[in-house]
Amino acid sequence: MSDQVNNAIGVLVMSYGTPESLEDVETYYTHIRRGNPPSAAQLEDLTSRYRSIVGGVFPLRENTNIQVAALQRTLDELAGEGAYICYQGLKHAAPYIEDGVAAMAADGIKNAIGIVLTPQYSIMSVGGYMKRAQEEASKQGIAFKSVQEYHLHPELIDALSKRVTEGLDRFGEQRADALVLFSAHSLPAKILEMNDPYSDQLLATSRAIAEAAGVEKWQFTWQSAGQTGQPWLGPDILETLTRLSEEGVKNVLVTPVGFVSDHLEVLYDIDIEARKLSEEHGIRLERIRMLNDDPQYMAALAASVLGLAHGGTNE
User: Fold this and answer.
1) Whole-model pTM?
2) Which stretches are transmembrane (predicted)?
């Protein structure tokens, strides 16, 4: 292995993962359920959701590849080619988090930084990713540090505030009456007993975006809760939209502040399910463009990695 690779810092870019085809949905779902296969009804429900998205295209898989490549280019531009080498690690699909760390070790990487494509920290989400990465890094003899959050990075806030302004402009003469509805993936309600920062960080991100975009009419809601038989954070976006219709709200701009790319929770849960309910209640629902590989988002990720590499704190 060349000295250049040995001296490079590995960057493990982590995300939730998605199946690569309809045939992979069962394996993917079983992994999410910790090895317990889904029932036939559960499998059909998830498969049908993927099938509804442009005939079953799996955008998150491709979008993650694009994001990792864009982060690599950004780091090359800022730090010089070869200083950082990006690897990918997914929570519920190949290459798994452990695979990404093992790939680093095989390349001779000795120092690595992990970052998750989720701006806000929760022990159940980002914390879980980092725990798996750290455990594998220790086995592989890699010194590993992790970016815990970047939910208020100026580039992130600016990129999202521009999208909110652009989205509101679509309402034309009704722009002033539109309500911005920030949303994020729900988590089990027990995190509230753990002093978990997830909820507070999501509200902080939402507030910062609203201030930057000059928005006064905004609310926050949850979405995409799991069906586990235990309470999840609420209210759900469908409940919120029903309430807003009862309050006479006619125009809503959904801003999925906890998501960074086009995937199932955006393309189905918002664009299909929430939009259908909105239409039934006489609400015009629009959604902001997702960040995907937006240069400002890449700048926020790169700055977080570089800051930690140069002695900054894990934030």
Assistant:
1) 0.94
2) none
